[in-house]
UniProtKB/TrEMBL annotation:
Protein name: SET domain-containing protein
Species of provenance: Coccolithus braarudii
Cross-referenced InterPro entries: SET_dom_sf
Taxonomic superkingdom: Eukaryota
SUPFAM superfamilies in UniProt: SET domain (SSF82199)
Length: 203
């Protein structure tokens, strides 16, 4: 399991960063793979309509997103995000050999996502990031503690190479962590939905 890079990037205050570094256990450092991994997304080919016997028009890819038009969430068009922290992360990744030229980070009515910057065709590489840039969190499991310890160990062992990435992680009190997994017991009870409370406590 690899820690997310661009898709889940947030801000971490210097004081939070120092606190995490000082509390991290002395475990093995993170992943040092040197192979290049790529994510390929292929545009869907038109499928023949069984009713009319005619093929449907091919799906067009907008200059600003995938599908037949500008990507929207709840009716909102994506707006490119401009932030020095994002720029620093992009600069580091590109310097390591990542291909990010086809996409950008955008805000969709308060939700952050990826937006296409160029027209793409079937088989095009949309984004690629060298595996050595990721943090190896081990095998995915229900218990998040081993993965958290590996993340802290990688942070402690890092010599500043991933500083742009660490600076975008959310602090403990971030609104980006406002899922039931991070609720206090009192907040869980306020949900008034016992099955969810049981599931969260089980994890």
């Amino acid at each position: 399991m690899l820690a997310p890079l661009l898709v889940a990037s947030f801000s971490l205050s210097p004081s939070s960063l120092t606190a995490i570094r000082s509390s991290a256990p002395a475990l093995a450092p993170g992943c040092l793979h040197t192979t290049r991994t790529s994510v390929h997304m292929l545009a869907k080919k038109a499928k023949a309509s069984s009713k009319k016997g005619k093929p449907r028009a091919p799906t067009k890819i907008s200059l600003k997103g995938f599908g037949t038009g500008v990507p929207k969430i709840n009716g909102e068009v994506g707006v490119l995000l401009s932030d020095p922290a994002y720029d620093a992360l992009r600069e580091w990744l590109v310097g390591e050999g990542a291909n990010l030229a086809r996409v950008g980070l955008a805000d969709f009515n308060g939700l952050r996502g990826v937006i296409a910057m160029v027209e793409m065709k079937e088989g095009d590489e949309i984004i690629s990031i060298p595996a050595r840039c990721a943090v190896d969190l081990g095998v995915q499991a229900e218990d998040p503690i081993p993965a958290a310890l590996r993340l802290l160990a990688a942070l402690q062992a890092d010599d500043g190479e991933r500083e742009a990435y660490w600076q975008l992680l959310p602090p403990p009190d971030s609104a980006d962590l406002s899922t039931p997994d991070f609720f206090s017991e009192k907040e869980l009870q306020m949900l008034q939905w016992p099955p969810l409370v049981v599931e969260v406590l089980r994890r």
